Amino acid sequence: MVKTIIMTGYGINCDYETEHAFRLAGSETDKVHVNELINGKKRLEDYQILALPGGFSYGDDIAAGKILANKMLANMSAQVKQFLDDGKLAIGICNGFQVMMKYAFLPRSGPQEATLTFNDSGKFEDRWVYMKSGGSKCIWTKGIDQLYLPVRHGEGKLVAPDSVIQRLKDNSQIVLRYCSPDGSLDAKYPLNPNGSTDGIAGICDETGRVFGLMPHPEGFLYPTNHPRWTRESVPEGAGLRLFRNAVEYAEKELV
Amino acid sequence: MTERLEVRFKKGHPDARAEYIRSKIQDYLSIPVSNVERVDIYTIDAALDDGQLEKVRTEIFTDPVTQESSYSPLASEFDNAIEVGFLPGVKDNAGDTSQNAIGDLLKIGFKKDEAVYTSVQYRVTGGSREDAERIAKELLSNDSIEHSRVNTYAEWKQGLDIIVPKVELGREPAVKKIDLQLDDAALEKLSADRSLALTLEDMHVIRDYFSKESVVEERKKVGLGDKVTDVELEVLAQTQSEHCKHRIFNAMIAYKDGATVEKVDSLFNTYVKKSSKEIEATKDWIVSTFWDNAGVARLNEDWNYVAKCETHNSPSALDPYGGSITGIVGVYRDPMGTGIGSKIVAGTYGFCTGSPFYNGELKPRLHPKRLLEGVIEGVKDGGNKSGIPTPYGLTFFDSGWIGKPLIYVAAFGIMPREVNGWPSHTKEIKPGDAIVMVGGRVGKDGIHGATESSLEGGEWITAGHVQIGDPFTQKKVQDFVLEARDAGMYKYITDNGAGGLSSSVGESAEFSNGCELHLDKVPLKYAGLDPWEILVSESQERMTIAVNQDKLGALRELADKHAVEMSVLGTFTDSGKYHVIYNGKTVAYMGMSFLHEGFPQMQLEAEWQPELEEEPSLGEVKDHAALLKSMLARENIASKEFIERQYDHEVQGGSTIKPFIGAANDGPGDAAVIKPLLDRKEGLAIAAGINPKYSKIDAYNMAALALDEAIRKVISVGGSLDHISLNDNFCWPNSVYDAEKNPDGKHKLAQLVRANKALYDYTTAFGTPCISGKDSMFIDSNIKDKDGNSHKVSGLPTIQFTAVARIADIGKCISMDAKKAGDAVYVVGETRDELGASEYYEMLGHVGKNVPVLDKNNARTVYKGVAKAIHSGLVASCHGCYRGGLGIALAQVAFAGGLGLHIDLKPLKLDDVRALYSESGGRFVVTVPADKKNDFELAMQGVAFTHLGEVTGDARIVVTGAGGEIISEDVSELKSAWQSTFGWW
User: Fold this and answer.
1) What is the pTM of this model?
2) Of B650, B811, B815, which has the smallest distance from its Cβ to A152's Cβ?
3) What is the 3-state secondary structure (H, E, C) of B769-780?
4) Does B657 contact A230 at a Cβ distance shorter than 8 Å?
5) Structure ipTM
6) Tens digits of per-residue pLDDT, B363-385?
7) What residue numbers bound the domain in which A246 lies?
């Protein structure tokens, strides 16, 4: 059976619903404190999927995700590298995405070349947004065209030099872009909730196995999470599909 | 060596935070500023070498894509620089994180006197130096917690000093021994000089106790004598404080109403507790009420939920951000410290301030708008950073709160009914158990928070009790506590709130009948605190746990994993003594029974003397559509979506009915519904009711209507009287009569008695028990006008009821937005001539006489009828009529659904204005699918209801009154009137 490790500690706070998402998708799960990976009580190699949930690691002080990324880099970079080299899967959601960007395993390993910074509004915002997927190599979003999910962040604007953005496009690494309800991609605020470059909401690495996004798929696991479920027909929690994709892939390729 | 690191966004990367400040300068102060540059400053007061400094600069503090930084001032051009940093000793969360991050990266430890401090420099282009001073004072800094400095460009060019806000108390801790053989004047002075808030009678009791021969003998054995120590005096002041002992609520009151005088022996016992106990006898879902930090009730066969609402008023008046973040993070600790501890699943807020648009004569220290923004921000950081959703809240504005606001904060938790076979709502301490403190360190912050809540607000309030909550530290504590609980490592936990260790250990020690507490084991933020300060400091994020000595090792290991600081401070004993030791010497030694029972009951007088107003005569309304729009735009009715959007109301994954809902996600939901256990179908509907304006006529009706509002809100989404629990929060002006200082004190106390009578009458009639609550008794402040004359301003007598309804199946919840053209529109409940103290009268400058009176039996029938109809699937939408009445409710139902309504008011048999704006309680606007009309009307037999019209597809509200059509308006116009007052702020 596929095993997913959900990282916790130091202010990570979406671990409960992220773990639930992977269970619903058919994975075994373990919530593991960062320090248990650092002190060797738990090992990444025992899992096929790594999830960095949302939250406020270190209170978002200095820069969101930065301090936890530093802690991981300083203390567990070897096992993270091995995990990724083994072709395993990872997802970073919201604060987890910020950690991935600042740790620099997204968009690729090496020096940090893109960042997530303050929303143009200057505020933290919680609202639901439409996203268009399509054309990326990301295995997490396979078969998904449009998504409607909540964003809940103050630092979600993706910024990178033009050359990096171009490379992401060329390599099919742009996974999700904010859009209008009808799917058109020139979405302005509040449809693009943070002013992100090209409306980018999520990207993957060059393999398509490592995925980071600002919106919260684990916030839409049940129809009753949808803001309008009392007036529209909502067949299922659409966020669940991302987790199913990953678990199915891991079942086939990694177990 | 001290280094000052400056960090800013590079050219081509605008800093959204700086732009936000620029627009605020424009909005608030109308100062033309063309540019604001933000520079984040990290003052590193630690011995790092050049290589280390460079490493932390690049790897911690500077984003390589967007930022640049330097240890020397970054060049730019501007007119004035405003720098804002914390005063020494004020909690600097980002500074603490910086220190952590540096320690981790360089693998070094910071020495005792080393630290990192954060501050911000705003470089402003445009405006004079005087303008910059104003910006600093009125917008960017708060002198009770921060220092600010303004420098012109020329001064900045010369170079600025580095400010290091290090605490250097520079003194040896000492214990004072105080002779209490003093005359009355000297005893009163002693209480006043130390801000003890102890009465002369209390001082007599204390003097008598410490003069008793047997007591003196015992004390001699532990090295004390016939004098009291300052430690003891401070502990007694804490335990006897209004905050901890609720002395007014427990007073003996002679209540005079006309010719009759009634003796009320404790408001709390006579009304609040009596009601709860009576209801408890009939409801098996009530688990634990009033004795613990929060109330407990049943969620399902395996889980209980925990609920607590608190207020944090005085601190928020002084520092709105610090006050409200400390309030919300603090109230989370109540469910965390209830029974053996629960997981927090939601928080809510209620902000009652002066009008944000106030432009009157009085000059409060902070303008209500700034105060409101500060408290919004505090709850935002407190909730979001804790990973706890804030799915519900309210605001209410009234001029009585321009000096001292009411800041309500509530927290809800869940816990398994049993943990390892132990009923989780109970706790136990065995003599010999270790006293363990976990969480934050202790400093001078928060000293006398509890005793100052027993005094009126004014210029004298000291900055000593200003604190800034630290959700990051507390989140780690919550994770740790839950794991320790489930591993069976303890059976007793409580929080350190008001009164600090003196209260938490003092109250805990009652479980074993004694304690031996070593103050020198308490971890401090800085050296030099006197023992009494360590004991009563209210420094935040701390829990006290009683732990079997055998389990200390395992607990410590767990604390290390979670990076939580844990200290063993002594042992709980059965000695009957509250025994405190500092560096081997006894500094406090008192009988447990004296501490908690030895003090006299207050004797108070109340006299009901209502000012009788008359109903005003009203002119004719020329334009009903315009009237409806101005009512929708009123500050107590208008949309506050801008607040809720800044709060994460969905984290933990159980969000079911959101605060703003409808076709465009922007209609006003009546209550929030969360599903705290993702794999179960039970939910909690949460809402609050408040409407103090009715106190202008009668606080009895004020209390009844607040309760009615809270109950209707949770019923609207799917709750029912079968299971609604309440928290009652009284916020009252000074009600202790004093011929000079408080001449109408007897009347205010009579209002309090009446509100309590209403609480008892209606909670028992509805079977909705208060399971916890709180009172805050001094909502008064002294504010200067522009000429420097001081005015006493008192808040209206106010109760907020927070309601929690258990929802058996969240799939049956409904929302308030109109769903479909053709649906029938009803108002359930009676609309009467009740405009007294209404929003409509207030708009016209009247109070009136006909305050809404709630008929218990009718209301109960309506609640039951509506709940039954909703559960039977007959209702498409349901929305209560609250402030502003039926007209407001109808407009909201329509625009939330993006649909129109055709309404005929004639069946209500009232004139148009009363039909639309009367605030009669016990009413709901309900829409019903056309094919279910008959079933609905059948189900509502015996309930007062009126068919008003239909939902239409044309998105217009058309209202017919007595003389024909009075309103025909596009719903988007109504929505925009409702949204434009605050907009996005």
Assistant:
1) 0.96
2) B650
3) CEEEEEEECCCE
4) yes
5) 0.97
6) 998 999 999 999 999 999 999 99
7) 3-253
